[in-house]
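assembly run, all chains below
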Amino acid sequence: MIIDCAVYQDGKRRPGEVALHEAYEAGHADNAFVWIGLYEPDEAEFDSVRREFNLHELAVEDAINAHQRPKLEVYDDTLFVVLKTARYVDTDDTVEFGEIMLFIGSQFVVAVRHKPASALGDVRKQIESRPDLLRFGPGAVLYAILDRVVDDYQPVVDGLDQDVKEVEGEVFSHAGTNPAERIYLLKREVIEFHQAAAPLTEPLDRLVHSLVPGMHGELGEYFRDIQDHLLRVVDNVNGFRELLTSVLQANLTQVALRQSEIGVQQNADMRKISAWVAIVAVPTMIAGIYGMNFEYMPELTWTFGYPLALAVMAGACIVLYRAFRRNGWL
Amino acid sequence: MIIDCAVYQDGKRRPGEVALHEAYEAGHADNAFVWIGLYEPDEAEFDSVRREFNLHELAVEDAINAHQRPKLEVYDDTLFVVLKTARYVDTDDTVEFGEIMLFIGSQFVVAVRHKPASALGDVRKQIESRPDLLRFGPGAVLYAILDRVVDDYQPVVDGLDQDVKEVEGEVFSHAGTNPAERIYLLKREVIEFHQAAAPLTEPLDRLVHSLVPGMHGELGEYFRDIQDHLLRVVDNVNGFRELLTSVLQANLTQVALRQSEIGVQQNADMRKISAWVAIVAVPTMIAGIYGMNFEYMPELTWTFGYPLALAVMAGACIVLYRAFRRNGWL
Amino acid sequence: MIIDCAVYQDGKRRPGEVALHEAYEAGHADNAFVWIGLYEPDEAEFDSVRREFNLHELAVEDAINAHQRPKLEVYDDTLFVVLKTARYVDTDDTVEFGEIMLFIGSQFVVAVRHKPASALGDVRKQIESRPDLLRFGPGAVLYAILDRVVDDYQPVVDGLDQDVKEVEGEVFSHAGTNPAERIYLLKREVIEFHQAAAPLTEPLDRLVHSLVPGMHGELGEYFRDIQDHLLRVVDNVNGFRELLTSVLQANLTQVALRQSEIGVQQNADMRKISAWVAIVAVPTMIAGIYGMNFEYMPELTWTFGYPLALAVMAGACIVLYRAFRRNGWL
Amino acid sequence: MIIDCAVYQDGKRRPGEVALHEAYEAGHADNAFVWIGLYEPDEAEFDSVRREFNLHELAVEDAINAHQRPKLEVYDDTLFVVLKTARYVDTDDTVEFGEIMLFIGSQFVVAVRHKPASALGDVRKQIESRPDLLRFGPGAVLYAILDRVVDDYQPVVDGLDQDVKEVEGEVFSHAGTNPAERIYLLKREVIEFHQAAAPLTEPLDRLVHSLVPGMHGELGEYFRDIQDHLLRVVDNVNGFRELLTSVLQANLTQVALRQSEIGVQQNADMRKISAWVAIVAVPTMIAGIYGMNFEYMPELTWTFGYPLALAVMAGACIVLYRAFRRNGWL
Amino acid sequence: MIIDCAVYQDGKRRPGEVALHEAYEAGHADNAFVWIGLYEPDEAEFDSVRREFNLHELAVEDAINAHQRPKLEVYDDTLFVVLKTARYVDTDDTVEFGEIMLFIGSQFVVAVRHKPASALGDVRKQIESRPDLLRFGPGAVLYAILDRVVDDYQPVVDGLDQDVKEVEGEVFSHAGTNPAERIYLLKREVIEFHQAAAPLTEPLDRLVHSLVPGMHGELGEYFRDIQDHLLRVVDNVNGFRELLTSVLQANLTQVALRQSEIGVQQNADMRKISAWVAIVAVPTMIAGIYGMNFEYMPELTWTFGYPLALAVMAGACIVLYRAFRRNGWL
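ok done. output:
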């Protein structure tokens, strides 16, 4: 699907709608270039574009299949750029990845967007308000899109940061939950995000140092600005990795400790119950002795035999109780 | 065993079967090269090839022994390439490795395949349909085979990804199993696969930057495409390594927690049983006391002595029951 | 807010207060430069500065937003430097980060300070006492500020070192606490500090090797001195990371051991109580037997039946006591 | 002790025994070189050699003391090479290290072997059968010895691989052993072996790229062959390190699980015993009640009092038994 | 404090004591240089030296404050070198660090020693016995001191090796101790030692490759010898780090296992005691039954009622005993 197609001359958008074939022609004018935005194009649409701009078959193949690695490749006089967009989905704490592919020639930009990638309409409007940059030609469009993609990484970093802090809170709280799975899934997400963002540093480095043909020298500083943001993102992501490894380790300690504390409490209960049973067993034994049916048991005939026996029982209990208390068992 | 032997002239296969010695001759024509496919050749067969193309003794030695490291070596005017093929075996979740060795001169390609490596017949057919590439000479064959080998890594990555997800599921499920062994074996597999795939990045880098003699400049972009796929594979494999380390750690937490929860439940049972025993011990003691045979025990002669005793017993039990209940022991 | 604004000529500060617009003019004199200190400037103030010194829009944007990565960027004839200041807050054992941004041209220095960064008034006084350095122009100011920022890292390192030693002490003490959370938070702090300090090594390297335009060659040795301090800081921080990983692991061992020792003690108590109950159970059983009401029980009529029974009971208890004692149960 | 001393001319060994001083002279002929093999030489022997070939004092010092790091050093026109040999000792699963030092000039090779290093007689015979290589001079001897040393690493790798597999088997078996010590000692061995083998990659790299003076260019490919083997060895060793770290972690899980399972079984036993005791306690209590000596206990005079009491006892036992059974306690 | 001050001419020490100001003068002679040894100099002493040799203020500042990072800095025509000395203190198994700073010009060496660093008198004597080296000027002194400092690392490595082996022994012994703290402190020591030794590799590399001005070319080989020793030390230290990480992990396993085994034994004891109590409970219950006072209990009047009851009791006990025995509870 063609989203937008416009011709830019001397940094300004030519007014009016342009059909694809008009755009091709218009793009050959001096100081002009075409910017075509495609959304999951079908083969026919793409074929026209491909032939018009003489795109390399390998780049085209990559552009149709999603799941590429972020990269910037130079094919003769055309650049092929793959970008991974990332979006933090608040509802289920996950990161959603999209893809944008760009073909950039001296007089054209073809932007192919794959499904979950955010629309580029905004980017177009924004850069159109900067004729001073657009004058630098297609490179300015590359800058604008890169800038947006990398800026969009920041909310992901913030979301992950939030998540890391939440699991930290959970690990060290006394709620008694075991966030091992959440930590692990977060780590998985962080690794995936790293794989989306980190490979972009190398192409940006080439852009900063003007090692990519066809980019106006003035843009170098703009690309450096993006690179700087990207490095900050990557630094943060690496920090998350290390923190999550530590928090997983700390979680083991906390879970083990918590379980162990439950066990210790239970053992203390058991000890207490057993101590009471032990105390009760003694008068039971004494009672048993005086319940024996021997004919000659002098105590039985004593007037104060019974109260004495009770006293002995009570005494034994008190002695035991005190001893157990002293040991901390009761 | 000679699998196939063909002469390519100007990017097209010369029709008809060619015997080995005919191929040698034909290969000297302008814009022509021979492509000989061998499958675990015996010494005699190989010796003929070796003498014809003047292959270096060290390369030949490596080609006969399997278990080489992936590499690309330049011997004067001959390239020697070792590739590790990988195949994910669904039936037992393992990865099977094979080997392909290539000798590439300006007018010949000798491909030696070792047992579990997949046949190259397909590759031959595919590249024969691209005379525009075959025109670049033996380098095009190297491209075609490298492309296939690296493309074949993708299903392995997918299989391993599946396995990692399965063990994750197992670790965090409530099935109560201990997948430590499976995680470990998976890690072993991932390391082995990394050792097969990763060393290829360096030779591909040299191919991309045209640092290998005898490769047509136009092929650079094609090799870059392969390199890109390979880097994606290596990225994924490194991700698996890190994930498996984490999941092994998480598994320890889960197993420890699960065992500990069983222990806690058992302790709670024990506490409950002991509490009941303690309750029963009290009326037993009282009964014992009134079972004593003292002559002077006034209570025994009371009319309501017996019901009173029962009431005391019941009362004691109720008091204990409530106390234990309050403590959460019952 | 403008903090200070002065003109330096031949390494000496021109006396008297200077308004902003005067400073601009004065700064064009030979061997002179302006140094303007701003504290969280509002847009209007900054706009005047920006227009006067023709600062690049990207640098200005970075200077207004805090939370930048430490860096040194060259824009045509202006340097833009971002520094992270760090301060160890004793009261709650945390590290507080601030930011200083510098715009450095051949005849001006604009220093922008963000909130928690420490004031630069001291630095100004210190460097003003060194006309031999100030003679080198704005580079001397860069040196002075860098030197202060990196020197201020040392107390942070000392504070973290103290903290690491405290958690070590806690882990290996017998206090029975679990410092897992503190270790983790310390690690988080160390990672954050690393992210503030480590990226500065690269710009300093460029300064040391005179790869930054507009810096007097003599200053190279001064920048090397700073770099040396920075490297020491980074070395220490890396050491902390490794130590904290180890201490977290050691803490798991200590906590597990401590809990386990409590459990062992409790088990020993239980065993002791149970052993006493078992001892008492035996005379209870014997007493029970002689409490049976069979008509023909010859022992009951023996004159010494009762003492004999008591003796048997006592004997059984003694035997059991000795056996349990031998087993270490009592 | 002088083991062997021979002169090689045009790639062939001059027949007959040669005394040391004859060798010195003979070695000055065109296309000739001397190869002297020493075994733990005493100072006198070595001194003669040192003076004859003008060996550097530092190299000589290193050659006499064992325990060097593998290295290749260039002293003016002499190479000094230190190699670590390794041998897997099957009887006690350990790796034994030896040392070989080589002094290589344009017309001589002095090989010094230290005790546990394997004899070089074989190497000499093997390379003597290759006059085409020996013609390249002393470099060919270096190749031959390096080739042997690195080839001899393979059995060590195989032995360690076997050991790793054995500990894996032990960890995941149900034998109930704790191979932590063996894993640790294996890791120690692997680290030691890595320290012996890995430093050789750098000198080999220099040899491959002909950065070492005095080596014939044709030998480059031969050294590359050795380097390739060495890299394979190092790859394997690194794999072992990672595997052993994982297996140590997995072992902790297995040991903890196993112990915990024993504990769970014991607890289940205890619960069962306690449950039986609890069941028995109830009829004991009832019997106690009817053993009381109250004068007015109507049940005692009932004709069916006794069987009724028994029935109540039995009933209580059955009810309890069923309840315990339902809870899974019996 | 001035320790020693001597003038060396043509590789030989000029006889007699020399005062500081004489030394300054004498050092200007051809082929001569002064070597001044200072021990924690006071400001006055140092100031004289500083002015005489025109030392850079930054270097002087570093020389007075200890706690520098090992480094080699070039200031115009003066080298400034910081070295960390290390000494293994047997009595308490710790490593003691000292510092030596060197200022080296074309005709002077100023060596500043800080407190715990070992005296350099020995080094002076040793190098004075080598006029062939001393002839190379101050570089020879640098060599001699570096050689001593690095040689002195070896006993530290040996001491740490011994310590590592001791904790290994402790971990895997059956002594039942928990060496977690010792392992941790050892790791701390190893990291500290690494920070003292490892930064020296880079300056040594520059010395080996003659990238430091003013060093005689012949000394390159001597510096390489030191570098080689240093690399061996660093290799060993890295090995210790990895081993200590593993041993800490193994210790966790061992401690957990040991504690768990104690628990298992205790549980087995408890089970045994409980089993005995259960056995005794049965005859107690039977005795209780026949102790009931029902009027109509036919068994009570049987002639053999009593022996029968005893037989039933004994029988029940035997049956239970056998059952428990079969279950492994007794």
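Chain D touches chain B through 51 residues (CB under 8 Å).

Residues 221 and 266 of chain D are 66 Å apart (CA to CA).

not gonna interpret more than that til we talk
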